[in-house]
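Usage

Read records sequentially. Each one opens with the input sequence:
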Amino acid sequence: MSSMKKFVQKLGIIAASGLIFGGLAGVSFTGARAGITYVSEVVSQQLSKENEDGKQKDNEDDKSELSENNVQIGSDNTIKVSLNEDSQLYNIADLAEQVMPSIVSISSTIIYQNPYAYFYGGEMERTVTGCGSGVIIGEDEERLLIATNNHVVEGTDSITVAFCDDTDVEAEIVGTDGRNDLAVVSVKKEDIAEDTLNKLKIAELGDSDATRVGEPAIAIGNALGYGQSVTVGYISALNKTVTINNASINMIQTDAAINEGNSGGALLNLQGQLIGINSAKASNMHNNVEGMGYAIPISNAIPIIQGIIEGTQPSVAFGSAYMGIQGKDLSAYDAASFNMPQGIYLLAVVEGAPADQAGLQSGDVITAIDGTNVTAMSEVKSILADKRPEDEIIVTFYRSDQRGNYEEQSVTVVLGNYVE
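and closes with the structure output:
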């Protein structure tokens, strides 16, 4: 909790700061961490007894209260079991309506180079679009700051953020942490219409360390790219280790549906507080198992997000370690079809970059780094996430001779700084 308080105080990013949201500070939902559709046997017995005795009572809010068991039933049949005097009658629709202004949809565009066009013709470039979600977690004088997953924005050429009223603006990446699958993007306030700006809210941060197995959970995100959707479930497990791009992350497990497009969205408790950043990529690791979704605990994410924004996170932009290559993944099928080694085909090497200085060239196929086989650019980035500028790595690659035969070679690359 102390890290979150420091985060909020240091950046001045909560709505109460009054920079943009005025009276629209994130609504606090106080109440019990209990099921929203739970009806106990005792409740049923009490209701039956009331019907028999004809003693049903309506108050001014049209609610019936059984004080002995501290249970309230609203006119809309919403039921809750109170655990403390501050609890409220919960309604998921009302809660979702309150928190939706904190959630955004993210659309991305990636331009892929065709490594075979040079040999076999066809389009040199192919444009691929993607979708994800984000959570408004702060602001400064000029920008709104939005947390999301690294894999939502990784390698993108352009990013668009859509708000709760379906308006959208261009966004840019503030920084990323590939190892922890977190990123921060920003949008300029001057690009947002005033009417939209007045509707937006900064998410209220919860304490995922205090979350318990069995508590209800609400997931909100841009599922399948069709716009914001809400799913409800329970916290199934805590501190579940999930591996993404060779990096292990401790996550919250929930049975609330988390699908493609939900990545970067919000996992909320019944107080409407953010307790996790959803990851469809982690959920897809178990795509043969029903009811297993994952989210990065917010208490773990906040210090990383703070470091990304301040530029102090060691793994900002994949550890700031920089090779200077543009590569295309070669599948086993592609490699066999074109008589090439399976690995990463170098589309381009940045002139003067560490890879160029080490002697790597366009057309080379990287197969290993420091003895670890690599077949995808995501694996290279994961390795670089643990590196610093000036670190040395040994790159194993294959280079074609004039006859098209590939020979294995290796070079030592002294990594540079990404921000140079």
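Summary fields computed downstream for this record:
- Residues 41-53 form the longest helix (13 residues).
- The radius of gyration is 25 Å.
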